[in-house]
Amino acid sequence: MRPYDIIVKKRDGGINTKEEIKYMIEKYVEGKIPDYQIASWLMAIYFKHMTSEERYNLTMTMLESGDKVDLSAIEGKKIDKHSTGGVGDKTTISLAPMVASIGLKVSKLSGRGLGHTGGTVDKLEAIPGFKTALSEEEFFKIANEKGVVVAGQTANIAPADKKIYALRDTTATVNEISLISASIMSKKLGIMSDGIVLDVKTGSGAFMKSIEESVELAKAMVDIAKKNGKKVTALVTNMDQPLGYTVGNSLEVLEAIQTVKGEIKNDFTELCLELSAHMVDLSGIMSYEKAKEEIQKNIYNGKVKEIMKEWIKSQGGNPEVVENPEKILNISNLTYDFISDKNGYITHIDAESVGISSMLLGAGRASKEDIIDTSVGIKIFKKLGDEVKVGEKIATLYYSEEKGYEEALKKLKESYIIKDEKPHENKTKLIYEIVK
Q: Which residues belong to any copy of the Pyrimidine nucleoside phosphorylase C-terminal domain (predicted)?
């Protein structure tokens, strides 16, 4: 078997066999096929795409290259949740105690943020004392006793994907449906849960900018999961604006806590309820409708709040943060308001630019080596469709003396467009499609 022949076959629109795909991936990981040949193959895939079968074979080859995380030591049903990444997406922090209040176990391995999207691990570490580096014994013990555990990924899951992704990143072959879906699902299937709920973002702050592309991606990932015998539901959700009212680590934790206490209602609250109800439904514990109703009850009777406190305490965090978040969390007291200079309606928000603005303040990483400042970020007061008048506050920047706010403010101002007429209602819709 020669890499050259496999590349030519795909370049000319042919279908690579399971053996050919396995050969390319395994030999590349072993260092026996050079970068330039895999880059050529990836570019051929980028332009000619893959069939459903090829996509599944690519996923499984990358999955088999590393470890799997066996969750059988955790009692009860385990449903995983994955988001394709967005701005202000702190859903895991609120969603985990919500579904745990129904009796479903949430045992997640999460990552750190890079670029305009934030990472769950970084956000949780904004809670004083919260530990995400857990031993296997600690991970299973907390999951069984508290119903919720979230740790940083330590297992060597799908190492082939890491190597392939690094090459895709430097050869402009990231945004291709088969390559994205295989990359995500090789890692998700490595964690042996009973099912997966996928939150596929679409819009200005997502990898996929159009609804059509995002639905296609959702269908591709659902297809891979089903071929693997895994229960799955995918929601295609709006990322044409930041999710909720906050962007930045401590600020997002604050909003997540306010949500589980029933203190605020917004698009973030709605998405947490939707994802939670679909997770419970997928587990078979109760129907989607019943789960949504029960979770809302548990928010208002304080059950979700108490589970969050116990979870935070079990991972070394200060549980008092749930009762007094603004006192416990490190939130900068240096602020600058972004004020409207015209009357009208918010018709466009470039969510990616808002994320970059937050990163410029120090809330995110431009490179893996950057150190995050958990105290900085952005609080948003005006979202898509909202009316705004001259002199009204659109957002507040929380900044540090070291970085200031000028560059971030400039980027934030560029992300907002104000016009005389309201945007089309489709622009503010939260869930575009559900794929099963």
A: 345-419
